[in-house]
Specification:
The protein is mainly α and about 260 residues long. It is built from ten helices and four strands. Helix 2 packs across helix 4, helix 7 packs across helix 10 and helix 9 crosses helix 10. The longest helix has about 40 residues.
Length: about 260
């Protein structure tokens, strides 16, 4: 049994990714940090607003002569406070790929239910529903007793909060044997038939293969090689060339072709 709840996602390359869900403790810690940062921002705004508002109220009262100008300035201050409150989470979660300053310190991150990074829509929905989740600790209740540890904002936005994993920088290494094969492929096949998305999938596989089990690596390489053969109309792979080596050669061929980076 796992101590922490986990979620699994399948990438387009048939690689299974597993994440640990962020618990109530790390999420509460992140929220405390974010609320302290927000409080500092709002205090600075209110001080500046009061200083400006008093001068404008006196000036407008002499011109317009209305006694309700102060109430208008108060209403504007309340609206700006709300926009800063929601905008803080929307801005950082969109710009920092699911993290706010608090989440970054707590080492947690928001992602979509399909494992992809959150966008503006998901971040906005989560921020708009945050006041409801904070009311009577409703969000904490959902997180504590929900199987996927989601608050109401996560359910509506289709997101989940995970522990951010620190991974070593991936390096893409190509064997020397792939170079002559890539030159042969350039002369005998139509590499230009490949789309940028096809190249991106091959590159992603070559980056991740070192962390894959041998059986999974062979299976994915064989599947990708078959797909590439069909795309470039290659009837037969050169002799004594493994699917892994073939994909390396395709990677080099595509880079050298006139359709890439020219």
């Amino acid at each position: 049994m796992h101590i922490f709840n986990r979620v699994k996602y399948q990438t387009p390359e048939s690689v299974e990714l597993e994440f640990v869900l962020a618990g109530i403790g790390s999420r509460a810690w992140a929220l405390v940090i974010d609320y302290h940062v927000l409080a500092l921002i709002l205090v600075v705004f209110l001080i500046a607003w009061v200083a400006i508002a008093f001068q404008l109220i006196d000036w407008l009262s002499n011109i317009v002569g209305s006694e309700n100008i102060g109430l208008w300035f108060l209403a504007i201050a309340i609206l700006v406070n709300y926009f800063v409150y929601t905008g803080y989470f929307v801005f950082f979660e969109t710009l920092w790929h699911g993290q706010t300053p608090g989440k970054r310190i707590a080492k947690i991150r928001v992602i979509k239910d399909n494992g992809q990074p959150v966008g503006l829509q998901q971040a906005a929905l989560r921020a708009l529903l945050r006041p409801i989740d904070d009311t009577l600790f409703l969000g904490a209740f959902f997180i504590l007793f929900g199987r996927r540890e989601k608050r109401l904002g996560d359910w509506i936005a289709g997101t989940v909060v995970i522990q951010a994993q620190t991974r070593p920088v991936s390096t893409l290494t190509i064997s020397q044997q792939a170079k002559p094969i890539s030159e042969q492929l350039l002369q005998t096949t139509n590499i230009s038939a490949m789309l940028p998305d096809d190249f991106a999938v091959i590159r992603e596989y070559l980056l991740r293969r070192s962390g894959m089990a041998a059986k999974a690596r062979n299976s994915v390489a064989l599947q990708l090689a078959k797909q590439v053969k069909a795309i470039i109309n290659l009837e037969k792979v050169p002799e004594n060339v493994s699917p892994d080596l073939f994909l390396e050669a395709i990677y080099l061929s595509y880079q050298q072709s006139s359709n890439f980076g020219q």
